[in-house]
């Protein structure tokens, strides 16, 4: 939810906080006295983590540590959800589940893995803390940040459809992701904290698609067909009239890439009775129509 929306909701009370600032966390926890804590704060952009590795570590590992340690002191009975990520699996081949090996390839994945091992698994065993972690695969919605590949694609294609932009550029078109709806993932987070014992779960749809397939599906929702031609950095996607709408640009490639993510959420299905309610097609449709509406509104 956008901060503006949250601030205006009568059922929510916003407290100022900062994971880089222990006194700020202490004050917020003392004021809130929470029963449940959901730590979703992160430098969550994998690409940027290569450029800002220290900041990524500082927030995603050290920041989580500050929060969890202060929670243990101020509200030791609070149940804690900590956001882990499929990026921790890195090069481990799919399908990935809770028993799969971790092999991160980015500063983002490394910081998240350190937090998972030390603060989630470690503190749970050592301090008997009620803490669990969702190992979430990609979770998307119309509220997704505009630099992530799904939203970048739906927003750019909406601009192109309405004649406001000619083309846009992407990096690796072959990367495969297990894209689910963020709303489904949030339901799983809540379910985890309602269980008798704290445990970690992979949350995923079990289906993966390439970036290329996401582009094709989003274009199709707008009545556009993409035809690909050329190879590598010279590859382009053209519309039915032969106009270039997608280009490949090396600046969007990562120094090292997680090539193939597809989660096996059998444990969550069995123990949490959770499943994804949104298909890939529904997700793409939801994102495309929201962006089409957004762009139309901005035009008026
Ligand atoms: N962002 C971006 N921009 N990614 C691109 C682009 C581009 O122009 N072109 C290709 N990609 C590829 C990336 O290289 C990656 O393989 C894939 O698209 C998805 O990239 P993102 O949308 O940036 O997401 P992510 O998979 O790296 O990370 C997201 O999901 C993780 C869970 O698996 C983030 O939300 C992470 O915070 C989260 O942990």
Task: Describe the model.
This protein has 300 residues and is an alpha/beta fold. 43% of the residues lie in helices and 14% in strands. It is built from ten helices and twelve strands. Strands 1-2-3-8 form a four-stranded parallel beta sheet, sandwiched between helices. Strands 5-12-11-10 form a four-stranded mixed beta sheet, with helices on one face. A two-stranded parallel sheet has the order 4-7. Helix 2 (22-32) runs parallel beside helix 4 and helix 6 (149-161) crosses helix 10 (280-299). The chain is globular, with a radius of gyration of 20 Å. The protein starts with a helix and ends with a helix. The mean pLDDT is 96.
What distinguishing features does this structure have?
300 residues; 4-stranded parallel beta sheet; 4-stranded mixed beta sheet; binds guanosine-5'-diphosphate-alpha-D-mannose
SSE map:
Elements: H1 3-7, H2 22-32, E1 36-39, H3 46-51, H4 53-74, E2 79-85, H5 107-127, E3 131-136, E4 139-140, H6 149-161, E5 168-170, E6 176-177, E7 180-181, H7 182-193, E8 201-203, E9 209-210, H8 211-221, E10 227-229, E11 236-238, E12 244-248, H9 266-272, H10 280-299
Parallel strand pairs: 1-2, 2-3, 3-8, 4-7, 5-12
Antiparallel strand pairs: 6-9, 10-11, 11-12
Helix pairs in contact: 2-4, 4-5, 6-8, 6-10, 8-10
The chain binds guanosine-5'-diphosphate-alpha-D-mannose.
Guanosine-5'-diphosphate-alpha-D-mannose binds next to helix 3 and helix 6.
